[in-house]
From TrEMBL, chain A:
Protein name: Carbohydrate ABC transporter membrane protein 1, CUT1 family
Membrane-crossing segments per the record: 12-35, 80-103, 110-131, 137-155, 167-192, 218-241, 253-271, 277-300
GO term, biological process aspect, one: transmembrane transport
Transmembrane in keyword set: yes
Domain ABC transmembrane type-1: 76-299
From TrEMBL, chain B:
A cellular component annotation (GO) from this entry: ATP-binding cassette (ABC) transporter complex, substrate-binding subunit-containing
Subcellular location: Cell inner membrane
Family assignment from sequence similarity: Belongs to the ABC transporter superfamily.
Stated name of the protein: Carbohydrate ABC transporter ATP-binding protein, CUT1 family
Topology versus the membrane: Peripheral membrane protein
Principal cellular location given in the protein's record: membrane
Taxonomic source organism: Faunimonas pinastri
InterPro entries: AAA+_ATPase, ABC_transporter-like_ATP-bd, ABC_transporter-like_CS, ABC_transpr_MalK-like, ABC_transpr_MalK/UgpC-like, Mo/tungstate-bd_C_term_dom, NA-bd_OB-fold, P-loop_NTPase
Domain ABC transporter intervals: 4-234
Length: 310, 335
């Protein structure tokens, strides 16, 4: 009896020792900053620069005070549009590319796979700047390329028009990141055993109906993961818009998303002074939006989804 | 009329010839087993019949139709895979009904066929379960059910028992034999296990290195193997081969004798030393070391009390001697 207790106590100690390094690192770089951010969002400084506890006053300011609310709701709406474009363009294209890549005996498979994945490895700064040049109405190649096929009338300064800037930036991001859903889904497709596919061939389930009836249901769990990754990535996005459109996310804030809004608020930009307390408030709101999205996935969707063992 | 015919079928993967010209006629309602060591091409041959692989040359005929360019689903065949290959996302009913739905068969008819197959295979209680909720034996039955509902002219089984444990394998073997009698359909079955081949087949096709070594009923192959390979492959423990002077006495290069046709008798002509004894209850396998000829197995009915190291004399039953020439081909029995 007492022997068992001694053994148990010893085991507990070594578990703690092994967990400690990870715990320290995680606490230092994740938990403390997060707690600090959440804490900071509950304070504000007054005209004399004295800091007061203000409770949820910052959130009220952000949501309802006209000057802040207009910017916040604009950024949030843009962010949802940004996310939706990824969901309806990036992920279906990723799935389609993966399905094409998994065609048996496809010539040049390795080349296509690499070619589609390369943009993902490029820096945001390069992608943003390169596309800015490509689409520039003054020295960009797009007008002349379109002109060469007599489609010049199609061209517009897409990045410079309020109506099209957000869509254009989102499509640039899609171009950059389509490799990630493609790779994940390609791996899932390769995981389907050959015999199951052959059984489908024997059953007359071939071509597109084989994809819809056999393959797609088997890769649904992966598509779920891809959707969550897209959601988290999009609501944390900042870099591409900053490098293509600048911190003001022009024209006239039409490409402003929560990331760029947070950046301007927290660090200040041009005439706007940095406000750590309102910045932390936006960061907190972003944290809760992402938390809500991930929780909705984990508790509502993933629970109903089956993982298949083959 | 042949239900399945292979005409000079060959298959090469790059420079490797896997099937080197196979001719075969399968009669209506026959249970044919392809057997051979791994890599002999038996699975490839089955996949060619199924249409999952294209032959390099030659023709496949199913019924009265040449099916070389016909896709698998249109060949009027159904296949049971080694890993069962059930659709993990569909329940048992869905697995069995998918092919019929794809063909556009009316719902009531699909239901009726599933019901009938489920009755035959005792799957009624499992129709709403998914493959992950079934045991290996149940999955096997679903895989067979998926084949039955299509009412094919020809069933193909690719090593269907190799993922089952030993006890279940024997039971399922008996069920497959019963099922074949019940359905009366032509069935081609691939296995590497000669016991399965012996117990199930109407005719066995022994394959080796991409060629047919011999085709015949199980007892035909057992009693009159056409060559050394078939003689050694069919039967367990395998046939003893003796060369040298003893074979020469009979005018052969190699002499074959099955373990059960060897007696241990004081007046036997061959002297040997017992090296190992296996007691199986019903039989005893006595392995003896014979000078120049190596290990020889003798199968004694009942219990035989021999000790390793003991010297014994072996007596072959003369009418069961098999003689092979220098090319390994069987010579006619000495009269």
């Amino acid at each position: 009896m007492s022997d068992i207790q001694v053994a148990r106590r010893q085991r507990r100690w070594h578990i703690a020792v092994f967990l400690l390094p990870a715990l320290i690192v995680y606490t230092a770089i994740m938990i403390v900053p997060l707690a600090q951010t959440l804490n900071l969002s509950l304070f504000h400084n007054d005209a004399q620069n004295a800091v007061h506890f203000v409770g949820i006053e910052n959130f009220r300011t952000l949501f309802v005070e006209p000057r802040w609310a207009a910017q916040f709701w604009n950024a949030l709406r843009n962010n949802f549009v940004f996310f939706l474009i990824h969901m309806v363009v990036q992920n279906p294209i990723g799935i389609a590319l993966a399905a094409l890549l998994s065609i048996p005996r496809l010539p040049g498979r390795a080349f296509y796979r690499t070619a589609f994945f390369v943009p993902t490895m490029l820096s945001f700064v390069i992608v943003g700047f390169a596309w800015k040049l490509i689409l520039s109405p003054i020295w960009g190649v797009t007008p002349s390329i379109l002109g060469a096929v007599h489609l010049k009338w199609l061209f517009a300064p897409w990045l410079g028009k309020e109506s099209s800037a957000l869509i254009t930036v989102a499509l640039i991001s899609v171009w950059q990141f389509v490799g990630i859903p493609m790779m994940l889904i390609y791996a899932a497709l390769l995981g389907i055993p050959d015999e199951v596919i052959e059984a489908a061939e024997m059953d007359g389930v071939v071509g597109p109906s084989q994809f819809w009836k056999i393959k797609l249901p088997l890769i649904l769990p992966t598509i779920g993961i891809v959707s969550v990754l897209t959601f988290v990535g999009n609501f944390n996005a900042f870099d591409l818009i900053y490098s293509a459109q600048g911190a003001l996310a022009g024209p006239n804030f039409s490409t402003d998303i929560l990331g760029t809004f947070l950046y301007r608020t927290f660090f200040g930009f041009q005439l706007q002074l940095g406000d750590h307390y309102m910045g932390a408030t936006i960061a907190t709101v972003m944290f809760f939006i992402i938390l809500a999205g991930v929780c909705a996935y984990l508790f509502l969707i993933q629970k109903r989804m089956r993982r298949y063992q083959f | 009329m042949a239900s399945l015919a292979l005409e000079k079928v060959t298959k090469s993967f790059g420079k490797t010839d896997v099937i080197k010209g196979v001719d075969l006629d399968v009669r209506e309602g026959e249970f044919i087993v392809f057997v051979g060591p791994s890599g002999c091409g038996k699975s490839t041959l089955l996949r060619i019949i199924a249409g999952l692989e294209d032959q390099t040359s030659g023709h496949v005929r199913i019924g009265d139709q040449v099916v070389d360019a016909v896709p698998p689903a249109k060949r009027g065949i159904a296949m049971v895979f080694q890993s069962y290959a059930l659709y993990p996302h569909l329940n048992v009913r869905g697995n069995m009904g998918l092919a019929l739905k794809q063909e556009g068969i009316p719902k009531a008819e699909i239901e009726a066929r599933i019901k009938k197959a489920a009755d035959i295979l005792a799957l009624d209680a499992l129709l709403d379960r998914r493959p992950s909720e079934l045991s290996g034996g149940q999955r096997q039955r679903v895989a067979i059910g998926r084949a039955i509902v299509r009412q094919p002219k020809l069933f193909l089984f690719d090593e269907p028992l190799s993922n089952l444990d030993a006890a279940l394998r024997v039971n399922t073997r008996i069920e497959i034999a019963k099922l074949h009698r019940l359905l009366g359909a032509t069935l081609v079955y691939v296995t590497h296990d000669q016991t399965e081949a012996m117990t199930l087949a109407d005719r066995i096709v022994v394959l080796n290195g991409g060629r047919i070594e011999q085709v015949g009923s199980p007892m035909e192959l057992y009693k009159n193997p056409a060559n050394l390979f078939v003689a050694g492959f069919i039967g367990s423990p395998k046939m003893n081969f003796i060369g040298g002077a003893i074979a020469a006495e009979h005018g052969a290069q190699t002499l074959g004798i099955r373990p059960e046709n060897l007696e241990i008798a004081a007046d036997g002509p061959w002297s040997a030393m017992v090296s190992h004894v296996e007691h199986l209850g019903s039989d005893t396998y006595v392995y003896v070391e014979m000078a120049e000829h190596g290990l020889i197995a003798a199968r004694i009915v009942g219990e035989a009390l021999h000790q390793p190291g003991e010297m014994v004399r072996l007596k072959p039953v003369p009418e069961f001697l098999h003689l092979f020439d220098e090319n390994g081909l069987a010579l006619p029995r000495p009269a």
